[in-house]
TrEMBL record:
It comes from Fibrella aquatilis. This is Lipoprotein. It comes from the Bacteria. Residues 215-237 are annotated as: Disordered.
Length: 237
């Protein structure tokens, strides 16, 4: 091939090389929607916390295509799956009052709002909450704020289960205490930095139409973003 022929072939060679590189790049950016967590979840939940909760028995469902959650669910015979440590006054298997959970406002970005209460001493809201999951299985990661036995608190909460026509199957609720006002001797709520995991004893948080009127649905404009001032979760006592 003489010099003029080589120069004439250069544009064609450049196009072929560009197409090969483009094809390779397209293969590299393939996203598996069944695995992993959204960027919002990664911002509010450190991987060591996820790993720790999993070791304690918490089922955490990954994925970017969770089911649509809306409605009220009742977790009865709420049983302790994992105490925060050997010094915890609540032992494995302890049963506490039922809890009501109301989910609403899930959008295309999979952020969601929920309220919770035991219709007694504990009530609060999930703020800056995001959903992961795949198919009918989901996990909510939330920064919750609540009041239990007159003590304001903030937690990092994790709610997991599988959506069915009768309710949420394999319902689990975990939380890590982040802040609390008062209770410096830890006589009422668990210590800051500690966690508990609760489960519905019969494995189903049933659908219900009743929710205690002590908590009204939270206006969508009042939600906190993942970067906002972060509160925490229920079953804190």
């Amino acid at each position: 091939m003489n010099t003029s022929q080589f120069r004439g072939a250069l544009p064609l060679m450049s196009v072929c090389l560009f197409l090969l590189l483009l094809s390779g790049c397209q293969r590299e950016v393939t996203i598996d929607l069944d695995k992993g967590f959204s960027s919002q979840i990664q911002q509010i939940v450190p991987q060591p916390i996820i790993d720790s909760l999993r070791k304690k028995g918490m089922v955490i469902n990954e994925g970017l295509i969770p089911p649509q959650l809306a409605g009220i669910y009742l977790a009865q015979n709420y049983k302790l799956l994992s105490p925060y440590g050997p010094e915890d006054s609540y032992k494995l298997g302890k049963v506490i009052n039922p809890y009501y959970y109301r989910f609403y406002g899930q959008n295309a970005a999979n952020d969601i709002t929920y309220d919770f209460t035991n219709n007694g001493s504990d009530k609060g809201n999930g703020q800056g909450a995001f959903v992961s999951g795949n198919g009918t299985k989901f996990t909510i990661f939330s920064q919750d704020v609540g009041v239990s036995s007159s003590i304001p608190y903030k937690t990092l909460a994790v709610v997991s289960g599988e959506l069915t026509t009768k309710g949420i199957k394999n319902f689990q609720y975990a939380f890590v205490m982040k802040e609390k006002t008062g209770d410096n001797n830890n006589n009422t709520l668990i210590p800051v930095g500690k966690s508990r995991i609760w489960i519905d004893e019969d494995g189903l948080a049933e659908t219900t139409t009743y929710f205690p009127q002590a908590i009204k649905p939270k206006p969508q404009s009042a939600r906190l973003s993942a970067e906002g001032d972060a509160p925490t979760m229920s079953s804190a006592n």
